[in-house]
Amino acid sequence: MGRKPKKGRKVDGILLLDKPVSYGSNQVLQHVKRLYQARKAGHTGSLDQLASGLLPICLGEATKFSGFLLNADKRYSADFRLGTVTTTGDAEGGVSKIRDFVPFTRAQLEAVISGFTGEIEQIPPMHSAIKIKGQRLYKLAHQGIEVEREPRRITIHSLELVDFGDDVMTVDVFCSKGTYIRTLAEDIGEALGCGAHVQALRRTVVGPFEASQMISLANLEALAKAGLEALDGVLVPMEGALADWPAVSLPENAAYYLKKGQPVLVPRSPTRGWVRLYAAQGHFLGVGEVLDDGRIGPRRLVAAN
Fold first, then answer.
1. Which stretch of DSSP H or E encloses residue 57?
2. CA distance 220 to 231
């Protein structure tokens, strides 16, 4: 018996979705997949229901590069409510503690948050998808179980106080992968002596992609009424996820052997690191890595059309 044909159409590219509040990341992923009638789709790092903003969704061959966006630096705008601690570290949890405090000055707030830049340690929250002994932490948390978590090293590249009121401070956070903004809010709240939680959160940057490139879910649904061609028109090429990588153009013979899985030597190419690979006429082949002997080894290649 032959293989069953795969459901959905072959469509390749990245949708830069502005995820609305109150929608889960997988929920909007499945909705986008249906709108595009796509055979394959995946997102690049979930946003909580409370959060909005940039959620790149990879379709088709672009899913091969979703991990690079998952590991990329990200930027957030966040509102921290001071004086109230919740069970989850954000506004979705129940209030566990309320503390009285005297409103802070800008200088006081900036002095405290300056201590949270650079390489720091965070203890992952119980309401997270991390696995310990095969179990997701958030599933244990829903059962009222709390387990010990090892601290993880993350990097806060920049942390800016954008605005503040009596009990709310708005910050801009540019950070490495693995950063939990709710943990940052809780830790800053403890350092201030009043406690805090995330009241609102919006992601504005993922790797090379910025908020100005996003499309809202409502606009996407309006485009869907015009047909698949209109939907495809708002996709970003899959190599856009790697826009800050060096590009290497391969001669025809080198491209032939690389597609066969063999490392190739390309004159005047970078001497180290990962690179984007192109054949003649700018056709994107995938990504490779420079080997110790100077050749470029294929790592993830795009399937031929």
1. strand 51-59
2. 7
Structure tokens at 257: 């052997």
Question: What pLDDT is recorded for position 1?
Answer: 46
Question: pTM of the full predicted structure?
Answer: 0.90
Cα separation, 125 vs 178, in Å, equals 11
Q: How many residues does the chain have?
A: 305
- In angstroms, the CA 204 to CA 238 distance is 19
Q: Which positions are catalytic?
A: 48
Q: Which residues of the chain have pLDDT under 70?
A: 1-5, 125-148, 305
Tokens matching residue 299: 């790592």
Q: For 99-103, which contacts have Cβ atoms below 8 Å and span 24 or more sequence positions?
A: 99/193, 99/194, 99/195, 101/192, 101/193, 101/194, 103/166, 103/167
The CATH classification of domain 245-301, taken from the options 1.10.10.2910, 2.30.130.10, 3.90.1640.10, 1.20.81.30: 2.30.130.10
Both tokens of residue 276? Answer: 């984007």
Please check whether residue 181 is in contact with residue 48, taking contact to mean a CB–CB distance below 8 angstroms. Answer: no
Architecture (CATH level 2) of domain 13-71+209-240: 2-Layer Sandwich (3.30)
